[in-house]
Amino acid sequence: MNVFPENTTFKYSWRTYQKKFLDNLNEYLVDNHLHVSAPPGSGKTVLGLEMMLRLGKPTLIVTPTLAIKNQWIQRFCELFLNTEAVPDWISSDIRKPGIITVTTYQGIHSASHADEEESTEGKSSKIPFSEIIKKLQKQKLGTLILDEAHHLKNAWWRSLMELKNIINPTVVALTATPPFDVSGAEWQKYIQLNGPIDAEISVPELMMEGDLCPHQDLVYFTLPSQEEQKKIEYYHSQASEFFEEIKNDNQLLSAIGQHQTYLNPMEHLDWIYENMSSYTSGLVYLNFRGKEIPDIHFKIIGDEQKYIPEFDFFWMEELLDFYLLVDEVNFKDYEEHRTDLGNRLKRQGFLEQKTVSFFNSKSLNQILNSSIGKLQGIKEIADFEFSVLKEELRMVILTDFIKKEYLDNETQNNLTLDKIGAVPIFEKLRRENSQNKKIGVLTGSVVIIPASTKEVFDQFCARQNIHEISFTSLVYDQDYLIISLSEQIKHTIVHIITEIFQSGGIQILIGTKSLLGEGWDAPKMNALILASFVSSFVLSNQMRGRVIRTDKDNIHKTGNIWHLVCFDSQDVDGGQDLNMMKRRFKTFVGISNRDNPTIENNFERLNIKIIENNDRVPEINRASFILAKDRNYLIKRWKTALNKGNVLVEEIKVPVENMAAMNGMRIDYLGKMTGNFAKVIVASVILFWQDVLLGLLRNIQSISSIKNFSLFASLFGAAGFLVYGGKLYRSVKQYLRCKDSAKQIDSLAEVVLSCLIDEKIIRTSTEKLKIVSSSDKTKSAFCYLEGGSQYENSQFIQTLQELVSQIDNPRYLLRQKRKFFFWKKEVYYPVPEIFAKNKKSAEFFKKSWDKIIGKSDLLFTRTVDGRKILLALRFQAILKRNGRIEHLHKWTR
After folding, report:
1. How far apart are CA 165 and CA 73, in angstroms?
2. pTM for this entry
3. What is the per-residue pLDDT across 818-859, written as a single tens digit (0 to 9) for each?
4. How far lies 68's CA from each of 93, 104, 246, 443, 852, in Å?
């Protein structure tokens, strides 16, 4: 029975993608979870409220902030009840639950801590959490809505899991940014609470509906300052010096050589198996130092060719990790050397948080991330955008820190701007403001407005019934006012400054991500500079979502999103700042900059050519400015790209290195095909040329029965033709399945799909399903499943990824024996975990593999022999250092 009033209904029409989602609601709720991923502006709140109504049970809604909590109540009253008055059956106090109870994550966690609860919920009565759960049970709570479900601090997760396990409600999880960048363990916690992602409302769908404006990501490259460059060069030179030292360190050589693993390897197989990288690094180092590697080691790792890689920075990091962190027991005689070495690594920034790294250290990253060169980049972008948009400019600059020590009480502020923060950015723009841009600062402790907006500010305060606000002029610039943040104004200052920004009183607003990130809304914003360097990609995506919303007063609104990268010419990959940016772009679905625009989610879509040195930086920035200027062309590019598709698919990209085994199989089948073809030719000659042979043999007096021989030859030829003809057909078929990377991934995907259907993980009828595979000029393979649900597609991609990933520790392996004339080799593939849970599932996987790809053997690895095979395979995996498998999103038909 529905507990909500009969006339409770959404007063507007549903958008196309919303209706499509709601029509499939029952399918999503099979596991009593509904997990939705949708970008800002998609109407997640309204969808959550509609789901609550359709489930028809008392509901608990949990939100990340007080502002968003109030927003849920306001939206429900306005859009469903058609009233401004909040009925008494809606509660904002977790201790007094109603039919609808709205609280915060902090409120749930601190329900039994009076002081903390008073600050979040405005209440002070202390009740044990168990009592709150009993009250929710008494209220017959049936639905739990988790808004912005990526908020998963461990303490909050435990409280929510306790509530979920006791009450067992239907869980509705809503998020704009699933936390894909967390550890595997954290991701499992996230899925345990929220369930697997059932549906994704994509950016292109919202663009089609006109709910997001055309927008583009732009990268502006900066260079380190002279002082920073010296630090970077010094850092790299120190790394090189350390490498030379380790190459000649006799104490280290002695310690490694005396380790029991290398003296008696057969007695330490379990240790070797668990510490394969450490073991291999020791072999690499000993070989580099000219020590002979006994054959027993090559036997253990299954390396008949006795190949040992070159000692380089990668192996030095592995070796030092082994020597300093992994094994303290066997190196106890070298304690003084280890301590000295570790301390020097720490002082130089190469050993941090129990991780040895020479080119991904916190200290080097900090130099690049917070490079003062970015201040000049911010100034140049702001000047450029103002030159294009003039008075229409509404730019937000988001950063991590306030740095209010850069305000000065002198008549001139001549402080050196050598750090990135809200105040230094303000000072940079203020000091060099030849265009007279209106600049403001909005942070938790510093608020600065142009003096020209004071009258407007007073008017907004009067509307909020706030009086006697204290202003102070900047001592060194009377054109700006600092607002004293009294208790009276603290709670409304964000709203007031936002309104002034919206109206144009402030054209460039500088703020911190904590204040202007999640939940903040300013639809007129048309440019954003992300000067935030320490946030996770969840926060990055949230901040980016502020500028892509539509503006009802400007149907032609477009948005430019600027990302700052400090280029490190000392690093062959451009430095860690660039690498971090590339990782973040995997979560941003947007328009490409190619001549034929597409919609996808990677850094490559920006079409930025590889930077080899500092000289190309200005050229790339000029190209970004050309794109930023032509906003009409941006609209056309979105229109062209949107017309190319109707669905955003998740696709797996497998580097060519990961397909090496399948490439070897192709050569194997080519050999079989060639051999069988030759045998068919021989059989054909015997079969079809028997008449010729018969004529020749009639003249040979020594053969008594020519007819019998002829009959024998015919039968032999026919049998050979049939046998080898069949083999030729099968080998040709197998070769065609492996002839290129697209065919190879397609064959593997067919095996995976067949087994997922058998396991009933994929339930969509096979007529609706289609495997789509392709390859690019680098021979990387791409694959996705068309026609399944979001959950099915995700499971398909995840399982296929396991199959093509390097072998780690699977329960079962498939072994294929390959040969090419006299050449023989055994190749192994992991049975994905989902099929390895029992022998029956593993055997069905083998059966499907044999049918589609070729005959194989199924091996159980939890035996002595299986463990030896895994040991050799893990050694090979470490040596290969395969490319990174990526998940891409593409808009397609």
Report:
1. 26
2. 0.81
3. 665 555 678 899 999 999 989 999 999 999 999 988 889 999
4. 15, 9, 55, 19, 53
